[in-house]
Give the backbone structure.
Amino acid sequence: MKPLVAILIMCFMYTQVDVMGMSTEPYPKRNAYATIIYMGTPRDYEFFTAARVLFQSLIKLKTDADLIVIASRTIPQTWIKTLTYEGIIVKVVKDIPNPYAKNPKFERRFIFTLNKIHGWSLTEYERVVMLDVDNVFLRAPDELFQCGEFCAAFINPCIFHTGLFVLKPSNETFFKMLKEVHKKIPNKDGADQGFLTSHFHDLLDRPLFHPPIDGTERLTGLYRLPESYQMDAALYYLNLKWHTPCGLNSAITFPSIPMLKPWFWWSYPILPLGILWHEKRLETIGYHSDIHILIIQVCFYLFCLSVTLFIQRRSPYALVSERSSSTKMCMNRSHFVEQSPCHPIVRKSIIMIILILSYILPFSIVPTTIHPILGWANFLLGSLTFLVITINLFKLNILPVMIPWLEGFGMLLVMFWPYHSSGISRSLIMTTYAFLSSPSLWWCFKKLFISPNGSESWEPLMTRTTSKHDVVTESSKLC
Ligand SMILES: *[C@@H]1O[C@H](CO)[C@@H](O)[C@H](O)[C@H]1NC(C)=O
C-alpha cells in the first residue's frame, strides 16, 4: 500500500511540475526572480498583465527559481488570486514612501518604485534577480544567480539600468537603504534607477560578470553584467536586427517612451519589436480576458454600419436615388433647410469635432493590451463606422472624409511592411509617404472646412452638378 501511495504522490508531483513547467528540484528554491506591482500609476492593469506574461514566459523557459511579486497592500485581491493560481508567490508589503515625489520633474508612474528595495529583505533566498515587467526573455538566464552582491548592466555607457539586476538579500543592506531613502540621498529621477545608481555609485569600475564554470559556485562582490542580459530595444531599430555578439542573448528591455511599451496594441507596428511581447502573451496567458470586449465592440460596429447603410438605401435623399430631377432637388433642399443650423461656421465646427471624435472614440475603447492585429482591425472598423454615420448624417462628400482614413491605413501598411532593410530607410520611406500624402489631406481639409461657399461641403456629390447658385442663395436667405 505504502509504495502505491508514494507512486501516486510522485505522479501528482510530476504532473504538478509539468503543469508549472519547472524542474524537479524540491521546494523551497534557493533563488528567485522578483518584480514589484503597486497602484497609483495611470496604467496599473497593464503592469499587472505584463507581470503575468513575464513570469509565465520564465516558467515556459524552464527556470529553476521561485517567482515573486512584491505587491503593495493596495492591489486588488483578485489580482493576488490570479497570480497565486498561476504559481507566483505574492509578498504583500507596505509601500515605501517616496520622498522625491515633490521634485519638480518627478514622474507620477514612479511613485512607489522604491518598493524594489524590499527585494533585499527576501533573506530566505541566496540571490534575487529583480525585474521590471518590460523585459522579454529569450532564455531563462539562471546563471545570474551565481553573481555577487549586486550586478547590473550598463545600457547607457555610464549609468546602469535597474530593469534587471541581481541582488544578495540582506537585512542589513535593506535597513541601510531605507535610511538612505529617508535621508534623501541624491536621486536624479526620483525612482529606483536614480536611487540605486546613487547607492552603487562605483559599479562602472567593477569587473564584468562571467558565470563560473562550476554551476554551484557563487561570486562575491559587485559586477557589471554583459549587455546581452538587457538588450535595449532601441538598438534594434537602427538596423532592424540584433548585434549583441557578447554573451547569450537573454532579455530585451523596452525602456523608451512609456506610451509605446510593447504591451500596448498601438505600439506595433510603430515599434515592430513589440510583437515579441505579444508572442509571449499568446503562448502564456492568452487573450481571453480581453477578447469578449472586442467581440462586443465589433458586433456593435457591424450593427451600426448595416443600419446606416440600410437607412441610406431607403432614404429619399440617398445618393443613389439622387437624380437631377427638380422635384427631388426641392425635397433635398427642404430637407437641408430643416436640418441646417443657422451659421455655417457652427455647422463646420460640429462636423470637425465629430470627425475627430470618430477616430478618438474607437481608439480609446479598444482593450489596451490586445494583440495589435486585432486592435488595429477593431479601430479601423470602428472609425469607418463613425465616419460613414457622419457622412450620412451631414450629407458630406464621401471622398474628403474617407481619404484620410485610407491614407492612415496606408501608413500602417508602410510601417508593417516586413522587408525594410534598416531602421533609417524605414523612417525615410515613412517620411516620404507622409510628404506625398499631405497635399491630398490638405485638399480634404479644404473641401470640408474652407471651401469658399460654405454650402459646398455638405451638399452630396451628385447635387453639385446642378446649379450651385440656387443653393447659395437658399443658404444665405436662411442665415
Ligand atoms: C531578516 O529580517 C526578517 C524580519 O525582519 C527575519 O524574519 C529574517 O529571519 C531576517 N533574516 C536574517 C538572515 O537575519
In short: The chain has two domains: 15-286, 291-478.
